Amino acid sequence: MFTGIIEEKGTITEINKQDQGMKLSIRGLKVLEDVSLGDSIAVNGVCLTVTAFTDQTFSVDVMPETFQATTLSQLRIAATVNLERAMSPLSRFGGHIVSGHIDGKGTVVHRKQVDNAVYFDIQAPKSILKYIVQKGSVAVDGTSLTVFGMKDSHFTISIIPHTLDETIMGTLAIGSEVNIECDLIGKYVERLLTVSDESAPKQNLAELLQHNGYM
Predict the structure, then answer these.
(1) Other C-beta atoms within 10 Å of 35: how many?
(2) Which residue ranges does the record assign to the Lumazine-binding domain (predicted)?
(3) How many Å is the Cα radius of gyration of the chain?
């Protein structure tokens, strides 16, 4: 589990692409302070397992499903990526619940400077937008952000200077693709509302709530 508070920016040092997957080596500093084999590190929001490490780099495997479903397949040598170690029991919970399991990709369609903030409009498919709510949380390339605005085809986020400097958000331009992870709680609620217990009477949760005056 992650919080969406990026710890540092890393650099891709090696890419070994296979037919449907790849191996990555990434240079970092802070995330290597207490690293062990098998640890989870989120790379641009994607939860990956450390398979090898030195005092300056760590290696991860990207399996075919992740290769296809995320922007990791677009990485090149010297590319900069967001890095975050898995949350520890004593960590401060500064962001929101982030699993590192990407729901899909979005595209930056507009970028605008407004005083000390930068607004990004991110276009996404309806399968993602249905989980996006005004003032709700979303992880973009692993960064925990608040939804600033909503439209039929995109959502808007507002980025402060600190986040622009400390993450790869500052490098995003119109046309850039990003990894999106929706709020986990919303997905669980949808599941509860649409799947009923086979052993219970044939009435789903939405019908039950409506029948008892809660909806």
Answers:
(1) 16
(2) 1-96, 97-193
(3) 19
CA 54 to chain centre: 26
CB 180 within 8 A of CB 140: yes
Per DSSP, what are the bridge partners of residue 117?
Answer: 114
Which of 105-142 are b and which e, b meaning 16 or more Cβ less than 10 Å from the residue's Cβ? bbebeeeeeeeeebebbbbbeeebbebbeeebbbbbbb
Task: Give the pLDDT confidence score for residue 215 in this predicted structure.
Answer: 67
Which amino acid is located at 114 in the chain? V
What are the φ and ψ backbone dihedral angles of 113, each rounded to 5 degrees? -85, 125
Mean pLDDT of 92-119: 92
For the whole model, what pTM was predicted? 0.87
For residue 163, give the 3-state DSSP assignment: helix
118 touches 156 (CB < 8 A)? no
What tens digit of pLDDT does each residue of 39-58 get? 999 999 999 999 999 999 99
